[in-house]
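Figure 2 data, in text form.
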Amino acid sequence: MSEVTGPAAAGAVPALEWTTEGCTVEAALDVVGDRATFMVVREVGCGVRRFADMQRRTGLPRDVLARRLARMVDDGLLRRVPYREPGRRAREEYRFTDKGFDLYPVVVALWRWGSRWTGDAGAVQPPIEFAHRGCGELVHAEVRCAAGHEVREPRDVLPRPGPGAVRAVSEPPDGPVDGPVEERRRARR
């Protein structure tokens, strides 16, 4: 493991000195952290917007899909758009909101990771690919810093306290202190 040097070293702080209270990764996973949600995001991103079509493609039970779609609408990831086929009753289909479109790079990153690391050493070819509409080449997600530099190696990323960071309190000898973070975690269980 290489030692951090240069300007970034000044920001190096041991992780255990800071709490994870208010963590945006944790908050995001509260919204999208289950298989069914990402299956719906994949389908809507592929142009599958109607309930029956989604159910057929995902294999999700009807009640699970209905609850997931309702929650995604409530969370602002999807919006309902009415449609009516001739001679049929009015129905709704689901489309991304801007918030939902912002998840698309995450799906692309999961697709690339899954294509590389799941299955039998590449023996299984992915049934879906994501290509650039303009040129037809496969797309991929990239990590860049605010200055525009591409970050190619995970070890080139330095986690550090952000503007909402809270310094951790030392744990008392008789065990951890219950605080707001633990209360939120218990409430989600």
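Caption note: The chain has a mean pLDDT of 85.
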